[in-house]
Amino acid sequence: MKKSPKPRLHKVAEADFPSQFGAFRIYGFEGKWGDRAEEAVVLKMGDLASGGPPLVRIHSQCLTGDVFHSLRCDCRAQLEIALTRVAGEGRGLLIYEHQEGRGIGLLNKLRAYELQDQGADTVEANERLGFGSDLRNYQLPGAILQYFGLRQVRLLSNNPEKVEAVERAGVQVTERVPCLADVVDTRKAYLETKRDRMGHLLE
């Protein structure tokens, strides 16, 4: 199997970023490899080099959850858990990837919602639209971790694929920290599909 090229990473911008969770530094990155290009935003708090492995969250963009507070998914809840945990420790990194709808894009995600309303689960909906269950690629976060000189991290995630992707990038995951949202009726089936069909670790 041909190995895909490493992303060519370019830092576009960097600025102070006060938030309700605390004072961060915000970065904008562009990554290009092969015929693929992607952007990511990073929120950094504290000195990542001091102390033990910092807490890191790789979060995929979810307009419906992160912005509109959708209760179909657990995305906004996980985002807030991550920012709260990083702020509580006073150091850490949140990588916000532009991979809406597990990589199928916003409008296709809305089409998937329509199919879910007709009885499909999230995996079936993606497949009926001609996509895989999860098209996300985590090469860019790996390159970003290397940019910040990180060799070890504690990864805030329920997704084993993210752990494997970080380690493929040459960064050791010393601990997988669960990122568990409350189970409410409107996202119960969504979480069950993540657990039963996608292998997410929802203890």
TrEMBL record:
**Cofactor(s) essential for the protein:** Zn(2+)
Where does this protein act, in terms of pathway? Cofactor biosynthesis; riboflavin biosynthesis; 5-amino-6-(D-ribitylamino)uracil from GTP: step 1/4
Biological process according to GO: riboflavin biosynthetic process
Q: Does the keyword Zinc apply?
A: yes
- Which of this chain's residues are annotated to bind GTP? R57, I58, H59, S60, Q61, Q78, E100, G101, R102, T122, S157, K162
Instruction: Kindly list the GO CC terms recorded for this protein.
Output: cytosol
Instruction: Say if the entry is tagged with keyword S-adenosyl-L-methionine.
Output: no
Residues the record marks as active site: D134, R136
Which residues are listed for Zn(2+) binding in this entry? C62, C73, C75
Q: Which family does it belong to?
A: Belongs to the GTP cyclohydrolase II family.
Give the enzyme's main class according to its UniProt record, as a single word. hydrolase
Annotated InterPro entries: GTP_cyclohydro_II, RibA, RibA-like_sf
Q: List the SUPFAM superfamilies.
A: RibA-like (SSF142695)
Q: What is this protein called?
A: GTP cyclohydrolase-2
Q: Name one Pfam family in it.
A: GTP_cyclohydro2
Q: According to its UniProt record, which reaction does this protein catalyse?
A: GTP + 4 H2O = 2,5-diamino-6-hydroxy-4-(5-phosphoribosylamino)-pyrimidine + formate + 2 phosphate + 3 H(+)
Q: Which keywords accompany this UniProt record?
A: GTP-binding, Hydrolase, Metal-binding, Nucleotide-binding, Riboflavin biosynthesis, Zinc
Enzyme Commission number(s): 3.5.4.25
Question: What is this protein's function per UniProt?
Answer: Catalyzes the conversion of GTP to 2,5-diamino-6-ribosylamino-4(3H)-pyrimidinone 5'-phosphate (DARP), formate and pyrophosphate.
Annotated GTP cyclohydrolase II domain ranges read 11-178
